[in-house]
């Protein structure tokens, strides 16, 4: 009887651990869905600026450093880079095409009459991914674990879609 309980608890623990692990495929699907939702949503109201660029800064992030085209943002231990090229309009696909890797786990574009948006992610280390979200001449990049791709990409699209220049 005692062995049965131990076996049952062991199996329960293993199932629980496996359920907590995000698969790349599941996270990829979730990322595309959440980023598309953020792309199609009304842009957040801008509350921060850098020169001629204004953007929405989530309350969970703080500005670490600014220069002419880059803004380094921090959320806990996670670093984000917001890049703005004012020479590219919101329908440009130039920044999207510049991200050239052989194998993406996420590579999706979104368009409407006024914007060209995208999300791309690829593995840079074992279960660690570089994620980039952009619209036209604006892109935002970070590095995350598999389980954080969707959440980070969605938040990044909210920032990117709010940028005005």
Description:
This protein is globular. It contains 4 helices and 9 strands. The chain has one domain (22-162): Protein Transport Mog1p, Chain A, CATH 3.40.1000. Strands 3-4-5-9-8-7-6 form a 7-stranded antiparallel beta sheet. Strands 1-2 form a two-stranded antiparallel sheet. It is α+β, with helices and mostly antiparallel strands and 165 residues long. This is DUF4367 domain-containing protein.
**SS content category:** alpha+beta
Low-confidence stretches: 5-20
Overall shape: it is globular
Lateral arrangement of strands in the main beta sheet: 3-4-5-9-8-7-6
Q: What's the CATH C level?
A: Alpha Beta
Distance between the termini: 70 Å
Summarize the topology:
Layout: H1 2-20, H2 24-40, E1 48-50, E2 53-55, E3 62-66, E4 70-75, E5 78-84, H3 94-98, E6 106-111, E7 116-125, E8 128-135, E9 138-145, H4 149-162
Helix pairs in contact: 2-4
């Amino acid at each position: 009887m005692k062995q049965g309980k131990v076996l049952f608890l062991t199996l329960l623990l293993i199932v629980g651990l496996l359920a907590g692990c995000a698969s790349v495929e599941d996270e990829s699907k979730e990322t595309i869905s959440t980023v598309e939702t953020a792309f199609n949503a009304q842009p957040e109201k801008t509350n921060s600026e850098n020169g001629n660029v204004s953007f929405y800064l989530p309350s969970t992030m703080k500005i670490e450093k600014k220069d002419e085209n880059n803004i380094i943002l921090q959320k806990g231990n996670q670093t984000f880079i917001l890049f703005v090229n004012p020479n590219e309009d919101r329908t440009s696909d130039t920044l999207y095409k510049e991200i050239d890797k052989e194998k993406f786990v996420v590579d999706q574009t979104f368009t409407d009459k006024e914007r060209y948006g995208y999300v791309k992610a690829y593995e840079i280390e074992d279960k660690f991914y570089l994620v980039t979200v952009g619209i036209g001449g604006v892109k935002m990049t970070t590095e995350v674990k598999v389980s954080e791709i969707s959440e980070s990409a969605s938040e990044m699209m909210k920032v990117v879609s709010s940028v005005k220049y």
